[in-house]
Write a structure and sequence with these properties.
Elements lengths: L17 H7 L1 H34 L4 H50 L2 H6 L2 H43 L1 H8 L2 H38 L1 H6 L3 H53 L5 H42 L20 E8 L9 E8 L2 E7 L5 H8 L10 E3 L2 E2 L5 H5 L2 E4 L10 H5 L8 H10 L3 H5 L18 H13 L5 E5 L7 H14 L4 E5 L11 E6 L2 E6 L1 H7 L1 H10 L8
Parallel strand pairs: 3-8, 3-9, 6-7, 7-8
Antiparallel strand pairs: 1-2, 1-4, 4-5, 9-10
Length: 589
């Protein structure tokens, strides 16, 4: 179920997925509750039939036919109870699974709408825990927790009413221990919330540790850190068990306490009720029926602890999920304006940018004009090259009127409209555990095999793909683990080439490519740049020799702007980079 995720300048508050889902499946809940009420109604009749039979037997006034009729009635009610019980379980537990499915879809939809800053604050393990363990807790609370709480309330009211009908004073004696159970449940349930929150947070850490170790298994083996990782994982696991035991202690008190108080009530009834039978205040049939109603009341009394446990777990997990749903993306376009034509000009006007969690600006007062052709960006490590590429890919919000696309403020262009005109190749190639063909065609799933092959050839990876046993049907493994670094980078380039987007941003994605492949790819980039805007960030200057312009960044500022030959003569930073890469230490002329 898709929930609209609106953003504005006002404080953001997601309506939460639970209420809309309850409205969506109201008919299942209603049918389930009606079936449950039918079960309770049938159960309430059985003690009355037993009372009638026992009183008839004690007085010698019941016939064989009447006794058989009562037995048949009890059997019929038992069959009805079983049928209605199956039906409410099917409807309510089915609803809880549908709720879990819809909530998972809402959560996933929300995660897809959040931006880079959010994922820098939240670990993958934590998000996986929310989508699994926490959602299961919510599902249990809205399934068995919901129906058990309704059943407990209905059965309690009905059973007490029947008990009052038999003897009000005996009912008061039987109910005397119940306030103690209410106080104990309230006391323990408050502590259960905090302890279960610790369990869920520790489960997130445990999940993230497992994910991180498996994703970096080759690095762990190279550095012989298997034992160290095992010890760290064991430590996290022991802490998780410790928190779980803390929860179990509360649960271990709730269930026995409920049963103990129920047995105290039974003891009171046997003592006082027995005396009422002796004095003929109530009949033996009434006494047996009263005990039967007390047994019916025992389930709600014991269910208090179980329901409190389920609801506390569910509420704790729901709050954790709600924190994600209440997250507000930093990228909030002030309008849904679309680009009316393909981008032909990018303007940076005194661009200054600071990351959300930092104080000092990473880029300061940068002014550039970028048109079709190859535009290079160079600079030493930490100069702001990757940050500039990320801003050009609109991964972070840009201050108003500092980044213009075809004269339009990028902050006023819808994200989908802009990014449809962009192909971005980050420093680290991100691949999916799918086939090579699927990874190349990721941005254009409708691309045919010829287009995929053409993009692979442009990235100089086609020949190597054909050497794989399954060629383009070869699965690359998680994050492309079956491929070398250079192969992963070239697949990422092929994925960008196949889009044929007006803007191509390549952030130092040739670092792991050998010289021969780099020469081939550079020529393809030059051809691509003839009628596209291509922005190439690199530490190696060879691909930029024919660039229309090259921007040199230093400590977040624009140090120089010019062609390759101009910068060699006029800029010391560029000249030093060039000399170091060409084995010459002589100063530039």
């Amino acid at each position: 179920m898709a929930i609209p995720l609106k953003t504005s300048g006002k404080p953001f508050s997601h309506p939460g997925p639970i209420r809309p889902i309850f409205r969506k499946y109201w008919w299942r809940i209603l049918c389930g509750v009606l079936a449950l009420l039918s079960v309770d109604t049938c159960q309430l009749f059985i003690p009355r039939i037993i009372k009638s039979a026992i009183d008839g037997l004690s007085h010698g006034s019941i016939t064989d036919d009447q006794l058989r009729n009562r037995a048949a009635a009890i059997l019929g009610l038992a069959v009805a109870v079983a049928s209605f019980r199956f039906f409410w379980r099917y409807m309510i537990l089915g609803f809880s699974r549908l709720l879990e499915q819809d909530m998972r879809n809402v959560l996933f939809h929300k995660l897809l709408g959040l931006d880079r800053a959010f994922f820098q604050r939240r670990t993958t393990g934590e998000l996986m825990a929310l989508a699994t363990n926490d959602l299961t807790a919510v599902q249990m609370a809205c399934g068995m927790g919901l129906i058990a709480s309704i059943d407990a309330v209905v059965m309690t009211v009905a059973a007490i009413s029947c008990m009052v009908y038999i003897n009000p004073r005996l009912t008061l004696w039987a109910m005397a221990p119940l306030p103690l159970l209410a106080i104990l449940t309230r006391f323990l349930a408050g502590r259960l919330h905090k302890r279960f929150k610790n369990v869920q947070e520790q489960f997130s850490l445990l999940t993230e540790a497992a994910r991180s170790a498996i994703s970096n298994i080759r690095l762990l083996k190279v550095y012989t850190q298997e034992e160290a990782q095992s010890r760290q994982f064991d430590k996290l696991g022991r802490q998780y068990i410790s928190f779980s035991v803390d929860v179990a202690k509360i649960q271990g008190l709730l269930f026995p306490a409920s049963g103990f108080i129920a047995n105290i009530s039974l003891l009171i009834i046997i003592f006082f009720g027995g005396r009422l039978v002796i004095t003929n205040t109530i009949s033996i049939g009434d006494f047996v029926a009263f005990i039967s109603y007390l047994f019916m009341l025992t389930w709600p009394m014991m269910a208090i602890g179980w329901v409190a446990n389920l609801l506390q777990r569910g509420m704790t997990s729901q709050r954790r999920i709600q924190e994600i749903l209440d997250e507000r993306p930093l990228l909030t376009p002030s309008s849904d304006a679309k680009l009316t034509e393909a981008p032909r000009q990018i303007k940076l006007q005194n661009l200054t940018f600071t990351y959300p969690d930092q104080q000092q600006p990473v880029l300061q007062d940068i002014t550039l004009s970028i048109g079709p052709g190859l535009f290079g960006i160079v600079g030493q490590t930490g100069s702001g090259k990757s940050t500039l590429c990320q801003l050009l890919a609109h991964l972070y919000p840009v201050p108003p009127d500092m980044l213009l696309i075809n004269g339009q403020d990028i902050g006023k262009i819808s994200l989908s409209s802009y990014r449809k005109n962009l192909a971005y190749v980050p420093q680290t190639a991100s691949l999916f555990a799918d086939t090579i063909a699927a990874n190349i065609a990721f941005g254009r799933p409708e691309a045919n095999q010829e287009e995929i092959i053409e993009a692979a050839k442009a990235a100089d990876i086609h020949a190597e793909i054909m050497n794989f046993p399954k060629q383009y049907a070869t699965k690359v493994g998680e994050k492309g683990i079956k491929l070398s670094g250079g192969q992963r980078q070239r697949l990422a380039l092929a994925r960008a080439f196949i889009l044929n987007a007006p803007i191509l941003v390549i952030d130092d994605s040739l670092a792991a490519v050998d010289a021969e492949a780099e020469l081939h790819i550079t020529q393809k980039i030059k051809d691509y740049a003839q009628d596209h805007i291509v922005i190439l960030t690199t530490h190696r200057l060879a691909p930029l020799i024919t660039a229309k312009q090259i921007a040199v960044l230093a400590q977040g500022r624009l140090s120089a702007l010019g062609t390759h030959l101009q910068l060699i003569k006029q800029n010391k930073i560029y000249n030093d980079i060039y000399n170091n890469q060409n084995g010459s230490q002589k100063p530039a002329a």
